[in-house]
Design goal:
228 residues; alpha/beta; Hypothetical Oxidoreductase Yiak, Chain: A, domain 1; three-stranded mixed beta sheet; three-stranded antiparallel beta sheet; 10 strands; 22% strand; globular
């Protein structure tokens, strides 16, 4: 397989070109391109340029709007709400961020809910602008049932990603972004795509037996990070 090295600006331009050519509006394409480029920048390949394949596939299947304009609502003194209109969440988040920051500074705490959105992206990119503004941030999103509980054979839990972070004086911010499964679903998909064996403890097969073959992890039966 041929390897190509791109600078971050080149990675962004490539993502923008792919997204625009497939019908995303300029604003949505730019927001998504910024996010997947951040994944590459931070060494998170499972949420980098590889995600473009799934993003375009989701659009072609009619599961996401390519151009919906987010509607931002001042819901309450400490709450902002963004209606993404069936689009990916990233542009809605960017548009709602100034209101969220304003509320957090005024009240000491604030929350943003993004409704009617499709979500695929790493959450650390949502936390970074909060820590850059000198704030503590927490982000989470639900997911489908991909994860079998310890000792189980059927998916029951979501990967339920969660991220948090806070600024530090004279140091980069401390940011954690994790799934509550043994590994992020995207990491299993990347191993399958490249034909690499999974680390022990990442997945189980249809019989509930541990496997290191990503192709044998049907419906992404990841392993719960908890143990009996």
């Amino acid at each position: 397989m041929e390897s190509v090295t791109l600078s971050l600006p080149e990675a962004y331009d490539l993502a923008l070109e792919v997204l625009s050519a497939n019908g995303f509006s300029a604003d949505h394409a730019a927001a998504i391109a910024r996010n997947v480029t951040a994944g590459e920048r931070d060494g998170c390949a499972s949420h980098g340029l590889w995600r473009l394949l799934g993003i375009v596939d989701t659009l072609r299947k009619g599961k996401v709007s390519p151009d919906a304009e987010p509607q931002i609502h001042d819901q309450a003194p400490g709450i902002a709400r963004a209606d993404a209109g069936g689009a990916f969440s990233l542009l809605a988040y960017e548009r709602a961020l100034p209101l969220l920051l304003e509320k957090a500074r005024h009240n000491g705490i604030a929350a943003l809910a993004i409704n009617r959105c499709v979500h695929f992206s790493a959450l650390f990119a949502d936390i970074e602008p909060l820590t850059e503004a000198g704030l503590v941030g927490l982000a989470c999103t639900p997911s489908h049932a991909w994860v079998a509980p310890a000792g189980g054979t059927r998916p029951l839990f979501g990967t339920n990603p969660i991220a948090f972070g806070w600024p530090r004086q004279d140091k980069p911010p401390f940011i954690v972004d994790m799934a509550t499964s043994a590994a992020a679903r995207g990491e299993i998909q990347l191993h399958q795509r490249s034909g690499k064996a999974l680390p022990e403890g990442w997945g189980i097969d249809s019989q509930g037996q541990p496997t290191t073959d990503a192709a044998e992890v049907p419906e992404r039966r990841d392993v719960d990070f908890r143990r009996p």
